[in-house]
């Protein structure tokens, strides 16, 4: 089911996503909120790409805050996998045919021409825009490979950003590798969910991912709270002056709203 952005070409539209599977099915102290996790994993919805588009994996995080103030942290790796369903590929081509027909009609309408003299009356600018339209806003099922976005997500009681990032990247490598890892993927997922404990306050914990060991550290009671996010990215995103201004607002206990796409 597509969203409301029908003016966009089909490959730029977003579609409704859903949770395909989650493990364990439920935890008494941390019930799985399917709607919230689905929305936070794919805030813009499901998206499609072709071999011509950038399909590099992207990582982001989110926080779920409950009514009692407790928090759980989610770390999400979004990647693209090839669409193997012929039905979905055919539907995408149909969407493009409909979209290009509408765009073609609008170009004709803007040129104020009759159908009989269509070829001669479209001016050079309209012809150029139409050519670009057909070149970039097209999907040919016989020529193009269709990809769809998919997420793998870890939900944790503490924000172990770096450890979760490394585990998800290793898991993604295992999923996409030509040579599978020594053990089934379920073994590594079971290990991180059931056999890797939280490190005690003030201690470090080393556990094995899929390919390489992973270390996570937990601050002691007298240390600053855990902040496993790289400060370099904050400086790159906000810039020095904006960051100083935000920090000043924090010290002055002002209300701060960060808005981002």
TrEMBL record:
Keywords: Guanine-nucleotide releasing factor. The keyword Metal-binding does not apply. It comes from the Eukaryota. One of its GO terms (molecular function) is guanyl-nucleotide exchange factor activity. InterPro entries: cDENN_dom, DEN5A/B, DENN_C, Tripartite_DENN, uDENN_dom. It comes from Chaetorhynchus papuensis. Signal peptide: none annotated. This is DEN5B protein. Pfam families: DENN (PF02141), uDENN (PF03456). Residues 1-261 form the UDENN domain. PROSITE patterns: DENN (PS50211). The keyword Nucleotide-binding does not apply.
């Amino acid at each position: 089911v597509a969203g409301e952005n029908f003016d966009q070409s089909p490959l730029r539209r977003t579609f409704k996503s859903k949770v395909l599977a989650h493990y364990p099915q439920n935890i008494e102290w941390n019930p799985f909120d399917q709607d919230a996790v689905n929305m936070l994993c794919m805030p813009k919805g499901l998206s499609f790409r072709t071999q011509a588009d950038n399909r590099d994996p992207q990582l982001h995080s989110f926080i779920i805050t409950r009514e009692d103030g407790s928090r759980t942290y989610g770390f999400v790796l979004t990647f693209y996998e090839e669409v193997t369903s012929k039905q979905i590929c055919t539907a995408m081509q149909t969407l493009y045919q409909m979209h290009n027909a509408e765009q073609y009609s609008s170009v004709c309408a803007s040129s104020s021409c009759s159908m009989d003299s269509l070829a001669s009356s479209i001016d050079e600018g309209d012809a150029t825009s139409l050519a670009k339209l057909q070149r970039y806003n097209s999907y040919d099922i016989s020529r193009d490979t269709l990809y769809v976005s998919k997420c793998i997500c870890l939900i944790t009681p503490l924000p172990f950003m770096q450890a979760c990032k490394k585990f998800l990247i290793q898991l993604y490598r295992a999923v996409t590798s030509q040579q599978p890892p020594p053990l089934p993927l379920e073994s590594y997922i079971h290990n991180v969910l059931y056999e890797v404990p939280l490190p005690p306050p003030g201690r470090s914990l080393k556990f094995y991912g899929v390919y390489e060991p992973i270390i996570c550290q937990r601050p002691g009671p007298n240390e600053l709270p855990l902040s496993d996010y790289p400060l370099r990215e904050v400086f790159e995103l906000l810039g020095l002056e904006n960051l100083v201004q935000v920090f000043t607002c924090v010290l002055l206990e002002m209300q701060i709203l960060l808005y981002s796409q």
